[in-house]
Amino acid sequence: MGHGGTRAPCGDRRRRDGAGRRLWNRARRLAGAGFSDVRCWLEERPTYPDDVDAFVRTSILAAHFERLPEERRERFAAAVLAGVRLPLDYVRLNASALRAPA
User: Fold this and answer.
1) Across-strand partners of 96?
2) Which of 30, 45, 58, 74 ranks highest by number of CB atoms within 10 Å?
3) pLDDT tens digits, residue range 20-65?
4) Distance (Å, rounded) from C-alpha 40 to C-alpha 27?
5) How many CB atoms lie within 10 A of CB 28?
């Protein structure tokens, strides 16, 4: 059990160091917003998208694009896509929570 009635798995060191922090942050934000029975977990999901370019740009690079000036986005995306090999090592962050009655 985590802070404020939240639960999140600890997982291996790689998950605790990176995605694990995001997991706890998500759980705490949901609990802080009035949700109860908060549960967050990571799900490994090797992915073979039909359109690798579109998937990488919208699912993986979108947050990076927000921080980059428009003129640098295409070169950045091309560099990332040049190194992509299938399956993508995709880890999904899932969350479940109940909203307190109003």
Assistant:
1) 39
2) 30
3) 677 788 888 999 999 999 998 889 999 999 999 999 999 889 999 9
4) 6
5) 17
Q: Rg of the Cα trace of the chain?
A: 17
Tokens of 98: 């109940």
Q: Where are the domains of the chain?
A: 1-43+92-102, 49-85
Return the bridge partners of 36, or none. Answer: 98
DSSP 3-state of 27: helix
User: If phi over 0 gives left and psi between -120 and 50 gives alpha, with beta otherwise, what is residue 17?
Assistant: alpha
Cα 22 from Cα 3, distance rounded (Å)? 14
Strands (DSSP E) along 1-102, which ranges? 35-44, 91-99
